[in-house]
Amino acid sequence: MASTAPPILPISNSQTVPSAAPSSVESQTPIATPAFRAFINQISETVRNGLSQRRPWAELADRSALSKPESISDASVRIRKNYSYFKVNYLTVATAIVGFSLVTHPFSLVFLLCLLASWLFLYLFRPSDQPIVILGRTFSDRETLGCLILFSIFVIFLTDVGSVLVSAMMVGVALICAHGAFRAPEDLFLDEQEPAATGFLSFLGGAASSTAPAVIAARG
Fold first, then answer.
1. Cα–Cα distance between 150 and 123 in angstroms, integer?
2. Is residue 128, in this structure, part of any structural domain at all?
3. 82 within some domain
4. Where does the record place the region Disordered (predicted)?
5. DSSP type of residue 123
């Protein structure tokens, strides 16, 4: 008597093909990338280091040290010495003036924030494997850069942003020069060997050099 073969049962393969969900996890938004977080941390650290080198504000506002300069050359020497000593305080005051001007001009502030956000999220910290697609059209990096340059020209020169920034910086420079010219620096302990770029002066160079690898990694 011939034995019948047992029926074959279907077996499900547990090792299925991975879905496309991980790709959505890997494609993080620019604000969530490690490069952007490193950029923000570097800026915060640079600002803290700069502010830690500021002079006492009471020393800056010492009315007993104010006197009229004897000549233009004396005023220029005073400005140079006072700026070398109070540079962080001066740049803090100038930054506060620019910030106050932008707050009092909300439309200019919105335009400037949109411009900065566009450069950060659409170019600097956008991964190269995530092209910009608008209405079904894919924009290359060169086209994105060109659009951002045109947008920057429009915001700075064709709106009030440029005039607000220039006016605020002129007011800040005028106040710094006036204080530096009338503040007698004889009681200041100046360090002639102090490097030319310290405090806030090294912000652009230090922050740019430190965050350049992060930007390259985000663009890679």
1. 14
2. yes
3. yes
4. 1-26
5. I
The two tokens of residue 24 are 């959505």
Quote the crossing angle between the two packed helices 141-157 and 106-119, to the nearest 10°. 160
Are 167 and 101 in contact, with CB atoms under 8 Å apart? yes
* pLDDT tops 90 at residue 178: yes
For the whole model, what pTM was predicted?
0.69
CA 80 to CA 74: how far, in whole Å? 10
Write out pLDDT tens, residues 117-148: 999 888 888 777 777 888 888 888 888 899 99
Q: Is the pLDDT of residue 193 over 50?
A: no
Q: What angle do CA 45, 49, 55 make, to 5 degrees?
A: 150
3-state SS, residue 104: coil
Mean pLDDT value of segment 69-86 = 93
Q: Cβ(43)–Cβ(120) under 8 Å?
A: no
| Alpha-carbon distances of 182 from 15, 66, 89, 173, rounded to whole Å | 79, 5, 16, 14
Contact 82, 180 (CB under 8 A): yes
Q: Where are the alpha helices (DSSP H) in the chain?
A: 21-26, 34-51, 57-60, 72-103, 106-119, 141-157, 161-182, 203-219
In a domain, 21, yes or no: no
**What does pLDDT average to over the chain?**
78
